[in-house]
Structure formats: structure tokens, C-alpha cells
Amino acid sequence: MTKCKLEYIWLxxxxxxxxxxxxxxxxxxxxxxxxxxxxxxxxxxxxEQAPGGSSDCLLKPVYVCPDPDRLGTGFLVMCEVLxxxxxxxxxxxxxxxxxxxxxxxxxxxxxxxxxxxDTQKPVGFPVEGFPGPQGPYYCSVGHGxxxxxxxxxxxxxxxxxxxxxVEGINAEVMMGQWEFQIFAxxxxxxxxxxxxxxxxxxxxxxxxxxxxxxxxxxxxxxxNGSGMHANFSNTLLRTCGSKEVYDAICQAFEPRIKNxxxxxxxxxxxxxxxxxxxxxxxKFSYGVSDRGASIRIPIVTVQNGWKGxxxxxxxxxxxxxxxxASAIITTVKSAKLPVGA
Length: 341
Hints:
This protein is of the alpha+beta class. The chain folds into 2 domains: 90 residues, Ubiquitin-like (UB roll); 230 residues, Glutamine synthetase/guanido kinase, catalytic domain (Creatine Kinase, Chain A, domain 2), CATH 3.30.590.10. The protein contains 7 helices and 14 strands. Strands 6, 7, 8, 9, 10, 11, 12, 13 and 14 form a 9-stranded mixed sheet that branches. The chain has a 5-stranded mixed sheet with strand order 2-1-5-4-3, covered by helices on one side. Strand 1 and strand 2 form a beta hairpin. It is globular. It starts with a strand and ends in a 7-residue tail after the last helix. InterPro entries: Gln_synt_N, Gln_synt_N_sf, Gln_synth/guanido_kin_cat_dom, Gln_synth_cat_dom, Gln_synth_gly_rich_site, Gln_synth_N_conserv_site, Glutamine_Synthetase. GO terms for molecular function: ATP binding; glutamine synthetase activity. Its EC number is 6.3.1.2. It is found in: Cytoplasm.
């Protein structure tokens, strides 16, 4: 008999940005399969998800992977939150995704800032004032440029050991700002893995007495904000070979600006200013290879005969990937396609 440690992970009810919560359950001889993870419960009155007089909320396991910090006997269990009657809780963004056949594929580019809690600034920033201006930090190497690499590298190894489909990492434009990318065939799975990677990143930063700042504009002024660019496709986008289809799908986003911005992360107006490779929050545009547009059509999609994917550059680093995917799927399905598409 082996006693296994299952770390149940869920999203709380704090607004405007939900946080991760977790607790450990000890079970015997766990198989590692999500269907063998039992439903559990927690005190929703402590997470802004239930009143004290009726505080039980339920945890429904939806994704399981090995816990790389507890190898051999540990597992991470991503959960949806249900109310006490077993219905999706109002904070459950995953339950809003309309992608039952996993036709939609998502690749999220998750930016974040390693934050020094003592200085209340990004790691590497001087206690007084600022470092040199942006330019040398993006994809950099060397002392004083690539700051925080030890946390980033350990996080990458943990994600790979957990079986997450991380496709890359890089230093970003602001000092102390980094990014990882995750791809999955299926919107819910992509969200599961982003949240799991966020959890591992927060837990890794603990070891270094650092924290992770998910805010989309952690430093005001002439510094890049942090996003979570959403690369997406479905069978139609991957196979159509038609510029007209791409135009129709992109144009479907314009009348739904508010629908998207509402779920694209708190304080995104501080980031989507029209500067620093963004479009203004109240405007919509799309274009080939245009990083200042709301939606970028990658040049590789055009070179491949209009078969590929699109990138929505508006989601903020603090957005819920479940809600982002849900909004994108709804809009793509609403597009008025050309006859014969």
C-alpha cells in the first residue's frame, strides 16, 4: 500500500482577479487517472464563494498530472468548483467553454513579472529609481539583463516533469518579466495546463522568497505591460485556404469588443493603450504580422495558403484562460462565413 499526496487546486471567488487555492488529500494507491480522483469539498465562505451559513462548495477533478515536487507519491489535481447542489459555481469559467469535441486548439503566451516583495518592484530593479530603458532585456543573456533566470529554469523543469506541454520560455521586454508558452488541442485542456503552470510558478517563487506579479501593468510609465496572447484555431482555420474566411472570422470580433474586454483581465486599460505593441482597448483592428493590432494574422498562416491560426493579442496576463477561450470560441462560431465555407 502506498499513501499518495493529491494536491487539489481550484480558483477562488475574489474579484476582479481570481487566485489559486489548494489543499492536500492523502489517499491509498492512487492510479494517477482523473476518473479515480474523488470529489472533495472546501469552505467557500473563506474564498468568497459561499455564505457562512451554507459554506460547502464542491471540487470536481478535471485534470491530473504528477506533482514534480512530490515525485512518486504526489499528484496535482485541477478542479472545477461546483455549488453545494453540484451545479457549476458562478466563478467556474471552465464550465462556460463550448468545445465538447476539442475542435479548438489554443496556444497561450503567458507573461509574468518576478516580484521582489521587499522592494515592491520587479526583480533586478534598483531600490531607488529604475534600471536602464527597455531594449536589452528581451530574450537577453547576462548579468543585469536576464534577471531571475534561476526561478524560470526551475519552473520549466517542474512543468516538463509534470507532463505539461510547455513549448518554450523567454525573457520579456521589461527587466524581471518573463514568458512561457503552452499549447493544447482542446480549450479546456489549454486552460487546465496554464493554471497548473501558474500554480507551479507561484510555488517555485516561494522557495526564492519571491512572488509572481500577474498584473498587466505592474510598472507604470514607459514599460511594457504583461499579456497572455491567445493563439487559436479550429478545423476551419486550419484547413480553409481562404483569405475571405479569415476576414469573416476576424470581422466577427469587432462588434463584440466589450464581450471580450470584460473577460480579458482586470486593469487592461492600463496596458491596451495603443503603445508598447498593443491596440487601444476601445478599438478593434486586425492585420497580417501586425503586433499593434487586436488580432494578428501570423505570416506563416498566409505563407501556408491561409491555413493556420490567429492570435488575439488583447488578453492580459491576469486573465482567466478558460474565460478567454470561451469568449473566442463563441465569437468564432458567430462569424458570417462566405457561401461554401
